[in-house]
């Protein structure tokens, strides 16, 4: 009998808890576009405090948070942003910074640990003397944790180095901190310290933290004032948005301490998968809530029951034969349907 289903496709598949639903039902609200919504203001004030920034702004998604942040920093068409070859902004956000913002991306290779070599970042900065032919570098983006590298954490020291480089060249630093709370818990370093060198950051509430909707961007008061206008331009101004922010406040209060457990489960999953003949994971590289199979390509994994019975599984070309033998999966069909999925995510629902 199926006792429980755990969906590991993403840490976004969480459901709001009873406490979140109650908070939403009882939220005090007003029109956040006309002036402000009191519950949104409470969330934004709390997020500014936790991240050590002057101000914060609730946005509907991480994608919009990153887009707004890049556009505020690169407000002249033909600006260039330096970002990781494996970054979410570059790969998964529909090229919005280019199609909507006229911002040119310049990628630097992400190392397996999620960093980009600082000397390679410096080498990618355009020489202003060549402005007759070059775009103008205005921004560097980091991602912490780096999702596509398997949820690896960037240290405060590394981020500081990139921040110093940005300052030296008159550039801004934005951090896609979709999972910055995971990094903070894993490293034992407060979020505000990890973001100290950043001019702006976007933080997702709807991933590991389990809120149903939303991200918050943080930065200086003037950055947030410009971000608020852009949010409206992009259709992200929401009226009684306190309904959503109320759930996010519960997520902040109740779920941050649970992330440590997610990380332990991810590690356990990686070590367990490693016991399977033909599967090779670098379990030591599992630092947070994402299990990435960097050698063979791990696809989706849906557990049925807490025992070892795996239904419809996943696997790499290398190890698919072995998996088929183990679990009698229709491998060809599965590979066809899931060929792009190569990460497993652990979240509070798992
Ligand atoms: C690192 C990272 N940044 C940004 C996003 C975008 O968030 P959203 O799905 O809320 O647009 C994601 C989504 O998975 C992500 O993993």
Percentage of residues in helical conformation: 25-40%
Cofactors, ions, other ligands: pyridoxal-5'-phosphate
Strand order of the largest sheet: 2-8-7-6-5-3-4
Structural class: alpha/beta
Provide the CATH superfamily of the largest domain.
Answer: Type I PLP-dependent aspartate aminotransferase-like (Major domain)
Structural shape: globular
Proper CATH architecture of the largest domain: 3-Layer(aba) Sandwich
Q: What is the total domain count?
A: 2
The secondary-structure element order is: EHHEHEHHEHEHEHHEEHHHEEHHE
Enumerate the spans where pLDDT stays under 50 for 5 or more consecutive residues.
294-342
What is the CATH topology assignment of the largest domain?
Aspartate Aminotransferase, domain 2
Average residue-wise pLDDT? 85
**How many runs of DSSP E, i.e. beta strands?**
11
Main sheet attributes: strand count, strand direction, barrel closure = 7 strands, mixed
What's the gyration radius in Å? 21 Å
Q: Quickly name the level 1 CATH class of the largest domain.
A: Alpha Beta
Q: Termini separation (Å)?
A: 19 Å
Q: Strand percentage, roughly?
A: 5-15%
DSSP helical segment count: 14
Protein name: Aromatic amino acid beta-eliminating lyase/threonine aldolase domain-containing protein
Keywords: Pyridoxal phosphate
Organism: Salix suchowensis
Cofactor: pyridoxal 5'-phosphate
């Amino acid at each position: 009998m199926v006792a429980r289903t755990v969906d590991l496709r993403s840490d976004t598949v969480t459901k709001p808890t009873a406490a979140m639903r109650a908070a939403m039902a009882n939220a005090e609200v007003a029109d956040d576009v006309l002036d402000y919504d009191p519950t949104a203001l409470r969330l934004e004030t709390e997020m500014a405090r936790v991240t050590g920034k002057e101000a914060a702004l609730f946005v509907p998604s991480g994608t919009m948070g990153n887009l707004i942040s890049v556009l505020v920093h690169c407000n002249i068409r033909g600006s260039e942003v330096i970002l990781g070859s494996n970054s979410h902004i570059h790969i998964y956000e529909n090229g919005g910074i280019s199609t909507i913002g006229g911002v040119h991306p310049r990628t630097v290779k992400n190392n397996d640990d999620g960093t980009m070599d600082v000397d390679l970042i410096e080498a990618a900065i355009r020489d202003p003397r060549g402005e007759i032919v070059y775009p103008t570098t205005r921004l560097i983006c980091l991602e912490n944790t780096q999702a596509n590298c398997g949820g690896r954490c960037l240290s405060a020291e590394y981020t500081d180095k990139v921040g110093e480089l940005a300052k030296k060249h008159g550039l801004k630093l934005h951090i896609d901190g979709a999972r910055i709370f995971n990094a903070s818990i894993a490293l034992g370093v407060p979020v505000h310290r990890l973001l100290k060198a950043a001019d702006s950051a976007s933080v997702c509430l709807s991933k590991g933290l389990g809120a149903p909707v939303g991200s918050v961007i943080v930065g200086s008061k003037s950055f947030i004032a410009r971000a608020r206008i852009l949010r409206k331009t992009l259709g992200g101004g929401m009226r009684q948005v306190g309904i959503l922010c109320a759930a996010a406040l519960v997520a902040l209060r109740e779920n941050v301490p649970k992330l440590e457990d997610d990380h332990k489960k991810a590690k356990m999953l990686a070590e367990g998968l490693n016991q399977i003949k033909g599967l090779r994971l670098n379990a030591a590289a599992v630092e947070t809530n994402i299990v990435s199979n960097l050698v063979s390509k791990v696809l989706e994994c849906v557990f049925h029951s807490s025992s070892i019975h795996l239904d419809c599984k996943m696997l790499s070309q290398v190890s698919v034969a072995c998996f088929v033998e183990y679990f009698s999966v229709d491998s060809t069909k599965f590979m066809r349907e899931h060929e792009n999925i190569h990460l497993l995510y652990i979240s509070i629902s798992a």
